[in-house]
Structures are given as C-alpha cells and as structure tokens.
Amino acid sequence: MFSNFAPCTTLFALVIFLLSTLGAVLRYRQWLEDPAASTNPLVFLITVPGFAGKHLWTFLTAPFMETNLTTFLGSMVVMLVFGTRLERVWGSREFLKFVAIVAVGSNLAGCSVYLIEYALTKNTFYLYESKLNGMVGLAMGFLIGLMQLDPEMMIQPFPINLSVRIKNLPGALLGLSNLYFVVFEAQSQKSLIEFSWMISWIYLRFFRIYANGRRGDQSEGFSFSVFFPEFIRPVINKISSIVFNIFVSIGFCKPASRKNFSNDTSNEDSELSLLPLPGSRSADDISMAETGNFRNHVEVGKDSPQLVHDPVTENNTNVTISTAKDYRR
User: Fold this and answer.
1) C-alpha torsion sign, points 4, 5, 7, 12
2) 110 with 47: CB under 8 angstroms?
3) pLDDT above 80 for 307
C-alpha cells in the first residue's frame, strides 16, 4: 500500500496515525471516567504554553498530533502526497531537516507569542487553555517548498476538474487563516501557518545548501514579493530590501552578489554557470533535473489530490510528477 511513497514520508504518516489514535484513546478514556472533567489529557502530546517548559518533547510530537477526523485525514493526504514529492526531489536527509526546522520552529514561535500575551495581560488562558498542534503549519511549509520547485505546477485538490497553480495556494491559506481567526478567534492555526510560512521561506531562501554547493536561493522567482498581488509587489520589494540590508548589517544574512545573476556563463568551470537567473527555476530544481534524480511518476490512491503540470492529466486516478524533460520546457 505504501510502496509508492517515500520512506520518511511514510514514517511520518505512521507517526501521525499513532499519535492521533493515542490522543483519541486518552480523550475517550477520560470521558468514560469523568464526562465533566475539565483537564486536558493531551498535555503530554500537544504544546500547551504553561507546560511546555516541563514537556519539551511536545515541540516534536505536537505537529503530528490531530484531534479530529477531518484534520487527521487532511494531514495524512498532505504528508503522503506533498511530502513524497519533496522527499524524492530533495532526498530524505534534507527533507527530515526541513520538517524539523519548520515543525519545531513554528511551534516554538507560536508558544512564545502566547507567553508574551500572558506576560502582558496576566490572563492564564494563554498559559493553560491555549494549545498548538496539528500539521497545518507543515502543510504551509510543503506548499512553499513545492512553490520553489515549480510555481506554475498545477494541483487538483479535489476529485473534480478544477486546477489551481501551486504559487497561489500559500496566499490563499494565509488569507483563510486570518479569516478563520477573525470569525472563530483561532489563534493557534493562524500562528502555525504564518510562522511556518516565514520560517520555511527564510530557510530555503537564505540558509539551505543546494546540490550545487550554493547557500540559499536568490532567484527573483522566489523573492518575498511573489506571495503578494502584482500591484503591491513594488512596495513589498522596497520594504524587504530594507529589512534584508538590516539583516546583512547585523550578520544574520550574507549580502547577495550581483554576479550571482550574471548572464555570462562562458566560464564553464565557474560556479556562476550553476546559479539560476532572475525569475528562473530554483537551483535545486535545475540540478536535480540534470542529474536525473527525479522519479518519473509517483502514483498514489485515487482519492488523493493530483499534482500536474497541465490542467488535464492522463489519468485522473493518479498523481503525475513531471520528468526532467518537463523542467526544461
């Protein structure tokens, strides 16, 4: 059943299943013993700010812990489909590193926000009633990773003839999280999504070491402004340039060299010939296509979303991943 999925992705899916099942058993057991109990039986599995200092391992378990059937099924699909895609392109080691950075980082950041709110308001709600858990943050991270690989890739999230470009999904998820926060005051989901967005983009943009040995992806096609509508991008570019220069001045980032975007590739021994041009596909995308590390196809169950490079797929029951030739178009 799981032979079509990447190994680490399959392992994470199993962890989601086991932790979520354990959580359901613990809640059911508490309900049987005391239906009126107000204590949370999951404080050892999810991140609760007031207990996080004692239960540090929850920063690892909480991202894979779902508390209802809908989010559980969604997390399994996201992990198996999107995770397999990324793991087979990046490799298992880099995929594990990315998951750890985004999952733990977003939970730490979200927990810190609750602690700050408690320090400002002295309201114990932020300590003991708030909680962080679930795959929604990692889902955003996966979207950023897929967007970097190919922003024009199409996805069919439902078994209907409706395709959406992957580059439009991070913004849509951010908008939905803010709307959900306004309507239902769901701060946890909003925090996980927004922090995962920032952490995954910053890591891939500035710190990840790619297959050609270069650190970061400085291509214009993966700039911060691409997450925003066209009309506001000039303003975002100016603001992000100011912030970037500040980070460079304090040593957080390395300055971008203009020669990285040179069109002169006459020197075949130069590393410049490996660097992407502005607006081109990312360095990892190019190098993986050239070395033939892409799997031609990844087939998953018929109920899973479809990843396609054209609005019409050859077979509506499979997920089709492009070959290296597709990336050279």
Assistant:
1) negative
2) yes
3) no
How far is the C-alpha of 240 from the C-alpha of 52, rounded, in Å?
A: 33
1 within 8 A of 10, measured Cβ to Cβ: no
> What are φ and ψ of residue 264, in 5° steps?
-85, 105
Average confidence score pLDDT of the chain: 78
- Residue 316 predicted with pLDDT over 50: no
Cross-strand bridge partners of residue 308: 154
Please check whether residue 222 is in contact with residue 283, taking contact to mean a CB–CB distance below 8 angstroms. Answer: no
**What is the reported pTM?**
0.77
Q: And the tokens for 217?
A: 């992806």
CA nearest neighbour of 126 among 137, 136, 113 = 113
Helices 187-202 and 92-121 sit at what angle, rounded to 10 degrees? 130
- Identify the residue whose tokens are 């733990």: 104
How many other C-beta atoms lie within 10 A of the C-beta of residue 67? Answer: 16
Please state at what angle helix 283-291 crosses helix 136-149, rounded to 10 degrees.
70
Count Cβ atoms below 10 Å from residue 11 Cβ, excluding itself. Answer: 16
pLDDT tens by residue, 180-229: 888 887 889 999 999 999 999 999 998 898 888 888 888 888 888 888 88
Please report, to the nearest 10 degrees, the dihedral formed by the alpha carbons of residues 176, 99, 45, 59 taken in order.
-90
